[in-house]
Description:
Elements: E1 10-16, H1 22-30, E2 35-38, E3 45-53, E4 56-62, H2 74-85, E5 90-96, H3 100-112, E6 117-122, H4 124-127, E7 131-133, H5 135-142, E8 146-148, H6 157-165, H7 180-192, H8 201-209, H9 213-216, H10 221-238, H11 242-261, E9 262-264, H12 271-280, H13 282-318, H14 322-325, H15 331-368, H16 370-382, H17 392-398, H18 402-408, H19 415-428, H20 432-445, H21 448-472, H22 492-526, H23 531-534, H24 538-544, H25 551-560, H26 563-573, H27 584-596, H28 601-611, H29 613-640
Parallel strand pairs: 1-4, 1-5, 5-6, 6-8
Antiparallel strand pairs: 2-3, 3-4, 7-9
Amino acid sequence: MNLLAGGKTYKVALVGQPNVGKSSLFTRLTGVGVISSNYPGTTVEFDEGVVTRNGKTVSVHDLPGTYSLSGNSDDEKVVLRDLWEGRNDTVVLVADATNLVSSLVLCFETLELGLPTIIALTKMDEARKRNRIDIDALSGILGVPVMPVSSKTSEGVDALADAVCEGKARAPVFRVEYMPDVEKAIVALEDGLPDNLKFNKRGVAVKLLEESEPFDEMIGTELRHTVAVMKKLYRDNTGQGLGVGIATSRYAKAESIVSEVVSESDTKPSLADRISDVMITPITGIPILLAVCLAILTTIVYVGSFLDEVVSSVYGAVVGTAIIDLGGDSEFWTAVLTGIDGSIQAIMSLVIPYIMVFYIILGILEDSGYLTRAVVLLDKTMHHFGLHGGSFIPIIVGLGCNVPAIMAVRTVQSRREKIILSSMIVMAVPCSAQMAIIMGATGQYSGIVYAFGILVMLVCLAVVTGVLMNKFMKYEPSSLAMELPDLQVPSAKNVLFKTWYRIKDFFYIAFPLLVVGSIVVEVMLQYELLDVVVEPLSFITVDMLGLPAVCIIAFIVGILRKEMALGMLAILFGSTALELFMTPDQFVVFGVVMAVYMPCVATLITMWREIGWKETVGVSVLSIIVAIILGTATNLLLQAF
């Protein structure tokens, strides 16, 4: 029967784990015109593409990647909510052909819910290099169509689209046979469930036994009490939770199916496989990670400094004072044009030398597959901070910009982890703009040793923050499951596209703000209006931090955008030769304060959305206090020695 007949728009949901190729498949299916938005009532984003094929209109939702359908994290809740409320005509389960066992476990969870399903087996081009998969046998076992596809080569994508449009999705009859005690509990619960559920009764019963919060809300108090009794009895009899027993049966079934349908090839491990093993083995992986981090910092320092000089020289030769000269004898217009000129110089000397270089490096690490291996390598270490290895990705992203880093915090499972990770990012992970200040100001005027000293201080601050928050915040259990993509040579086109996508906001958002702020400050300087702000707070800047009083303006403007602070110093002093107005020791203190104090406005707004306004205010106030304390301590130490 053709489900997609008539004039309505039919809905398709893509469900799969992270890194299985789901988003790439979505791009192949939908092409252009993709809309990214938050799922209603949440901060979790998903992509939607509406396409017309064979005269039929199909809306495809690329749901967040998830390792489970328990609904105990934000991403899982969004996936479950879409499956429950979305009225999807087809659910496309995206499974990784190169890592079939893990993907099948999620498939089992989805199939148990009884929704019309098609399985898209991705990365078939890579899988064939390692083994042979009997697609027909797999489809026969699972009772739903299985479509082999490759987003890289477009193999099978058209066939999958046709299968969706022709209504070939099937409600599965497949079921995992659990241990006898679990099966008894499932049957008992099925008898007590109402008939008007949108999911299969057996699937709902299993989810109730797995302690899935959204499913607990579907039942009454009496049945909830029955579930609690079943869980207690099972734990008393076996010494483990029901969720563990259910997961064990699923993995056993997945391994059994894989042994039936997959024939391993005799090909020896490739060089890429051997390199991958070296990267995730601690004894060799840690030195590699340290070398990579050192290479990143060194590249930013030396390449950034070189490009900074080139940009400044080119700007001076091409533009010079032409913009300022347009002001003529008018004090007001000279001030306005000086602000514009300084803004252009400031944004160019930050974006091209430092921010662009970092994002090129980040794109290379992502596309090569190394970043995911660093996550797996650091998982155990991150446990000391109450986090998992996946937290390393937001931290690395934060070295570029704290805004996408805070947005990436939503991928962690518990609210506790989100607050800990957000605090560490805001106070101890310098964004590229802060890094430019640390390297371009402290490093240039005080010496590279002091710049690296600030970075060491930030590492220590991150450790102390994570350890203390982990110790005093209420524990919430969570876990990490992550698949490793293949190592590959990064695509120059992809890396450059990602770099532009990430830095364009600095031109669209930062530059207008910098221009407006610079003009306001230049006019205030011209008419000596800054004393209203400078003098009352000089007890902090001068007495405690040992800085020129006007530095408070740079700190305040830095709240708008961090990259504006260094440029604002040049505007305040009326020269880019900052060494004439501040001592090397003062540049060290300035770098310390700028590295720690209050997040920028964009980061504040993002934090507000992700972790709540109370936590955002608390972290911001704490960062200001810590920045002043560390800056004062640094000032006193430098004076003493």
